[in-house]
C-alpha cells in the first residue's frame, strides 16, 4: 500500500475498483452452528493438527463498542456517522483517549495509542473494539500491547488496512476470530442519501457482530478464476502489511485456511514482489482456497517500465502448481464494496464457471 496516497484519501469512501462491476452481495440464513471449542483438522502433509479459532461472544443489544485510533489521527466529528449507526443497532459506544489526538500522522504518541488500546482490551464492559481509521501505526505499538486478557475476556477487534496487523497478531498468538471490515471513516455522512451498496457494507458489520444472519457473498465469474470448493477458516487482509509482518511473531499462518488478499495504490511490480514473498515463505503452498479482492494499482510513471502481465496472471503463476480454488475481483478491500469478513471463522468457498460464493458455516 502506498501510505502517502492512502492517507490523503482515507477519510472518504473510495471509488469502485476492478471488482466493482462484478461484486454482488447476498444474504442467507443457515442453521448450522459451530462451537468455538470444536476441533478442525486439515491434511497438509506433515503439518500438525490445530484447534479451531475461538469465536468471541456475539454482541447483544445494549452492548458497548469501544472506538480507538491505533493508527492515523481522527477527530470526534468524523466518528458521528459511525456512532449514529452503532446506536441504531441498539448498541452503545465508548470513545478512547486517542480520538482527537495528533502526533504527526498518528492518533497520538505510540504510548498513548498503545495505552488506549490496552484499556479497551481490559475493560469488561467493552465487547468489541472498532479501529477508527487506518493509515499507518499499528506495527509501532503491537509489541507494547498485552493481548492476554482475550483469553478470559474475548472480544471482537474490527478494522482493515493497517488493522491487518491486529488480525495477523491475534490469529498467530491467540487463535481468535476477528472482523475485517470498514472503519469509522468509511461510514456514509448521510445515511438517507447513501447508496444501497454503501448501506449493505455497513449493515454487514452489524450482521457479523450481532450474528443476525450468516455471512454470504457472491461475485461474478472471472475467466481467470480456478474452479473448486473448500471449507476452512478465513484469514487475510492487506497484502503489503502481511508482507511486512513476515518472519515476525505476528506473521501470517495460512496453512489449511482460505486466504484473502487486497491492496491499493501500489505499482504492479510491487504487488508481484509481495506475491513472491508469500510464495517463497510457503504461505501459498498449503492453502484451502485463495480469494483476491480489490487490487488497485498505480500506473507506472515510465510506460517503458510497465510489466507485460496483469495482476491475474501474476497471481496464477505463483499458484499454478497447486489445485485449490482461486477467485478474483471479490468484494473486499479499499473500495465501496468492502464487506465484513469474519477471520478465523469457518466458511465454504465455491468457485464455478458462473461465479463465486463464500458462505459462513
Q: What do these coordinates show?
A:
The protein is α/β, with parallel strands linked by helices and 361 residues long. Helices cover 24% and strands 23% of the residues. It contains 9 helices and 16 strands. The strands form 3 sheets. Strands 1-9-16-15-10-11-12-13 form an 8-stranded mixed sheet. β12, α9 and β13 (326-327) form a beta-alpha-beta unit. α8 packs parallel to α9 (311-319). The longest helix is centred in the middle third of the chain and has 15 residues, at 196-210. Mean pLDDT is 89; it is low at 3-50. Belongs to the peptidase S66 family. Residues 232-349 form the LD-carboxypeptidase C-terminal domain. GO terms for molecular function: carboxypeptidase activity; serine-type peptidase activity. This is LD-carboxypeptidase.
Blueprint of the fold:
Elements: H1 3-9, E1 23-27, E2 39-40, E3 50-51, E4 64-68, H2 80-88, E5 92-95, H3 110-122, E6 126-131, H4 138-141, E7 156-159, H5 164-174, E8 178-180, H6 196-210, E9 215-220, E10 228-238, H7 239-244, E11 258-266, H8 268-280, E12 289-297, H9 311-319, E13 326-327, E14 341-343, E15 346-352, E16 355-360
Parallel strand pairs: 4-5, 4-6, 6-7, 7-8, 10-11, 11-12, 12-13
Antiparallel strand pairs: 1-9, 2-3, 8-14, 9-16, 10-15, 15-16
InterPro entries: Carboxypeptidase_A_C_sf, Class_I_gatase-like, LdcA_N, Peptidase_S66_N, Peptidase_S66C, S66_fam
Organism: Arachidicoccus ginsenosidivorans
GO biological process, one term: proteolysis
Number of strands: 16
What is the number of independent domains? Answer: 1
Low-confidence stretches are 3-50
Shape label: globular
GO biological process, one term: proteolysis
InterPro entries: Carboxypeptidase_A_C_sf, Class_I_gatase-like, LdcA_N, Peptidase_S66_N, Peptidase_S66C, S66_fam
Organism: Arachidicoccus ginsenosidivorans
Keywords: Carboxypeptidase, Hydrolase, Protease, Serine protease
Amino acid at each position: 500500500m502506498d501510505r502517502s496516497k492512502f492517507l490523503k484519501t482515507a477519510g472518504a469512501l473510495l471509488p469502485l475498483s476492478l471488482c466493482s462491476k462484478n461484486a454482488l452481495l447476498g444474504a442467507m440464513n443457515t442453521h448450522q452452528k459451530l462451537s468455538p471449542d470444536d476441533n478442525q483438522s486439515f491434511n497438509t502433509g506433515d503439518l500438525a493438527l490445530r484447534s479451531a479459532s475461538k469465536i468471541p461472544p456475539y454482541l447483544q443489544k445494549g452492548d458497548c463498542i469501544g472506538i480507538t485510533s491505533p493508527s492515523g489521527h481522527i477527530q470526534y466529528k468524523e466518528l458521528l456517522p459511525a456512532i449514529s449507526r452503532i446506536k441504531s443497532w441498539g448498541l452503545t459506544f465508548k470513545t478512547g483517549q486517542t480520538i482527537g489526538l495528533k502526533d504527526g500522522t498518528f492518533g497520538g504518541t505510540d504510548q498513548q495509542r498503545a495505552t488506549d488500546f490496552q484499556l479497551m482490551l481490559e475493560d469488561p464492559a467493552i465487547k468489541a473494539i472498532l479501529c477508527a481509521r487506518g493509515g499507518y501505526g499499528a506495527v509501532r505499538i503491537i509489541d507494547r500491547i498485552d493481548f492476554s486478557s482475550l483469553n478470559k475476556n474475548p472480544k471482537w477487534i474490527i478494522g482493515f488496512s493497517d488493522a491487518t496487523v491486529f488480525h495477523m497478531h491475534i490469529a498467530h498468538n491467540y487463535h481468535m476470530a476477528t472482523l475485517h471490515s470498514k472503519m469509522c471513516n468509511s461510514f456514509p455522512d448521510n445515511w438517507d442519501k447513501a447508496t444501497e451498496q454503501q448501506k449493505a457494507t455497513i449493515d454487514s458489520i452489524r450482521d457479523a457482530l450481532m450474528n443476525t444472519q450468516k455471512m454470504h457473498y457472491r461475485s461474478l465469474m472471472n475467466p481467470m478464476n480456478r474452479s473448486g470448493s473448500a471449507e476452512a477458516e478465513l484469514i487475510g487482509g492487506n497484502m503489503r502489511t502481511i508482507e511486512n509482518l513476515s518472519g515476525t511473531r505476528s506473521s501470517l499462518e495460512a496453512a489449511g485456511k482460505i486466504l484473502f488478499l487486497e491492496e491499493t495504490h501500489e505499482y504492479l511490480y510491487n504487488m508481484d514482489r509481495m506475491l513472491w514473498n508469500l510464495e517463497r515463505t510457503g504461505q501459498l503452498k498449503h492453502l484451502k482456497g485463495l480469494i483476491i479482492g480489490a487490487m488497485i494499482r498505480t500506473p507506472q510513471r515510465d510506460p517503458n517500465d510497465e510489466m507485460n502481465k496483469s495482476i491475474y496472471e501474476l497471481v496464477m503463476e505463483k499458484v499454478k502448481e497447486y489445485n485449490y480454488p482461486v477467485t478474483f475481483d471479490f468484494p473486499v478491500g479499499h473500495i465501496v464494496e468492502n464487506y465484513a469478513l469474519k477471520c478465523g471463522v469457518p466458511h465454504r468457498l465455491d468457485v464455478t464457471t458462473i461465479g463465486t460464493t463464500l458462505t459462513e458455516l
